[in-house]
Write a structure and sequence with these properties.
The structure is a homodimer of 392-residue chains. In chain A, the strands form two sheets. Chain A has a nine-stranded mixed sheet, with helices on both faces. In chain A, strands 5-6 form a two-stranded antiparallel ribbon. Chain A has helices spanning 26-41, 58-62, 67-74, 93-106, 126-133, 149-164, 168-182, 196-201, 229-235, 264-277, 294-303, 312-317, 334-338, 342-357, and strands spanning 8-15, 50-54, 84-88, 112-120, 204-206, 209-210, 219-228, 240-249, 286-288, 371-378, 383-391. With 392 residues, chain A is an alpha/beta fold. Chain A is 37% helix and 18% strand. Chain A folds into two domains: 8-125 and 218-240, 3-Layer(aba) Sandwich (Peroxisomal Thiolase, Chain A, domain 1), CATH 3.40.47; 137-216 and 242-391, Peroxisomal Thiolase, Chain A, domain 1 (3-Layer(aba) Sandwich). At the A-B interface, helix 2, helix 3, strand 3, helix 4 and strand 8 of A face helix 2, helix 3, strand 3, helix 4 and strand 8 of B.
Chain lengths: 392, 392
């Protein structure tokens, strides 16, 4: 595998609190996150060469496309007409914006790039939002017939239970853990613990998935500043190296996949990222994975190679995925507790990994974290993106 | 200005006929264009490493986001889960997909990439389409108050007429020329000439712009195969070099710009592209520019440096922008006659330039064309993208 032409580092992070921001517009969320990241990087905004924004569906939610230029203007970056590009792959959009920023610098085109992700979901009612989110599944073969994202993940969960004996308690254990983690994250939408009983007794959204198996509807934005590595070492006290990138695609409709208890896109994306970083799953110290539904995290920790297929549920019950376990997963609270503003999620995950590798995660710090992984899924697995970051 | 780490060439082109395709779905349009480009490149599809798709708004038009993976699947490219990414900046989306494909290869990540653009607009009525298209302008400050794209371009046209004396006849001359060119393009939506009188007497859409000053609503798709230059020379008899890329952004709302008779985004994008290619506007032999409205072409040929500010209208009247003139512009028929399926347009423009540089444009061939330029605008100029291509 050929190396990228240049190495790239993360030198700044920022995000808004995730939640229901009735008082903030999409623009304002973008500004907050962008400015925080630029201030964190400690650079003059004149040094910024380009902007990439991940956003799933401002077109449906707000009737506004073309949002990258809009955010560039709001953050004050149009003075030099810098390039601003939106990238979209359902709720993997943020992760892909990050990847495009990486390639932009690696290609030699630019030195400093801001990548961000944002979504404003609470301006419509939740039933309407559910329809918009289903646009990340296959409209013609799934959504048109009433299949929502929870329904599709419920089918995957049922099959996982049948094939591997995964239990309702194991699914619930994912959400209980992520709420416990989220309690320590000041930017999380939910900063409160929930009990196993609460999760199990909650109303069902789509059997076997209940209310607490599903990530919430959220508003929020997150941003990162990327920089060519040599320059990063000069201007940043703690650059974090982007060691590996991997992306994979699969059929949008789950019926067109050979298996629905694994995500081929995730397996291939992680394979590519591990190879590029020159590491194995065992070397990952901390991971943020895509738990839009509890079954999603169980499948992810298997498909990423942290646990054997079928052992995702038991591993979660054994506390292997929390602090002191085999690999702490979703220390930020994950999509479930941190919140899931679709386009922002992939960037927020990398925010958390960078914080961990800087050893600045305070109460939720993973001891001696040197290698972190972020995993983002679009829809039910039509896209998967994996990035590996390392302490320099 | 630093060179890109690797050079990239176009080795395959393909597009559907543009028009109202009642009998073809978005998927089918994507397949047609993609397969044509792959066949034209003469490569085994197994060699394709990644896919980038430009699309403005399948979310609004079809309730379908996440379309890059969908197209990858339909074209049969998910067997190895290749990365598939959608890029969006209103009707500059195709041009930006092309740019991401270029950076992907230049960075060293991949060797062969397919870039495409597609839009299916005719499944809704034209008033609804007009609202969706207005999502490329500023929703909160323009579209919400009823401003459509024709209305905003009409304001720019009025100002251009006042400042530079541009006439209705000069605006009309753009459309007359582009229809004359389109007549020679078998993929054009309109392959018929129109008279100056027809244009001038047509019903007004937004004064001073009439029906024939506006590009139509279209369905269509276009695709290109990009390849690392050394490999391209081995496998392709006529690779076309991507010599320059430039992108610029500006405020979405025209009220937030210092001037509305020029596009700062275009000026900056072309400046960047010329510098990267090491050429001046005089060296360009053929250009495809963004004439979503007739005034758009007049501003473009000024902002790109082909003519002095204010001389765009007179130059068109002098036949400087047709065959045998100073620089033939929109030999394909442009957005006006070829059609304007938003996300596909930026790719179709490059299709035309490659055809010209291969000297395969038949009746509309520009003699001895060695350098071509493609210029794409998002909305009213919030984004502009310029690419320069050269015979190897």
């Amino acid at each position: 595998m050929k190396k990228l032409a240049r190495e790239v580092a993360v030198i700044g992070i920022g995000q808004t609190k995730f939640g229901e921001h009735w008082d903030l517009s999409f623009r304002e969320l973008g500004i907050q996150a962008g400015i925080k990241a630029i201030l964190d990087a400690g650079i003059d905004s004149k040094r910024i060469d380009a902007l990439f924004i991940g956003n799933m569906s401002a077109g449906q939610f707000l009737g506004q496309e073309h949002i990258a230029s809009m955010i560039a203007e709001e953050v004050g970056l149009t003075s030099n007409q810098i390039p601003a590009t939106r990238v979209e792959a359902a709720d993997a959009s943020g992760a892909l914006a990050f990847r495009q920023g990486l390639l932009d610098i690696a290609s030699g085109l630019h030195e400093v790039v801001v990548v961000g992700g944002a979504e404003k979901m609470s301006d419509v009612t939740s039933d309407i939002a559910a329809g918009f989110i289903a646009a990340g599944a296959d409209q013609a073969w799934e959504a048109l017939f009433g299949a929502t994202l929870p329904a599709l993940y419920a089918i995957m969960a049922r099959r996982h239970m049948k094939e591997y004996g995964t239990t309702m308690e194991q699914l619930a254990a994912v959400s209980v853990k992520n709420h416990r983690h989220g309690k320590m994250n000041p930017f999380a939408q939910y900063q409160s613990e929930i009990s196993l009983e609460t999760v199990l007794k909650a109303p069902r959204v789509a059997e076997p998935l209940g209310l607490f198996d599903c990530a919430p509807i959220s508003d929020g934005a997150a941003a990162l500043v990327l920089c060519e590595m040599e320059l990063a070492k000069e201007i940043c006290p703690c650059p974090v190296r982007i060691a590996g990138t991997g992306q994979g695609s699969d059929a949008l409709a789950i019926t067109n996949r050979p298996s629905i208890t694994e995500m081929r896109a995730t397996k291939k994306a992680s394979e590519r990222a591990y190879e590029r970083a020159g590491i194995t799953p065992k070397e990952v110290d901390v991971a943020e994975v895509h738990d839009s539904f509890s079954i999603g995290e169980i499948m992810a920790i298997e498909d990423l190679g942290f646990f054997e297929k079928g052992d995702g549920g038991p591993a979660t019950e054994r506390n292997d995925t929390t602090f002191g376990g085999v690999i702490p997963v979703n220390t930020s609270g994950g999509l479930k507790a941190r919140g899931h503003p679709l386009g922002a999620t992939g960037i927020a995950q990398i925010n958390e990994i960078v914080l961990q590798l800087r050893r600045k995660a305070e109460g939720r710090q993973v001891k001696d974290a040197r290698v972190g992984l972020a995993h983002s899924v679009g829809g039910t697995g039509g896209t998967s993106v994996v990035h590996i970051l390392e302490v320099v």
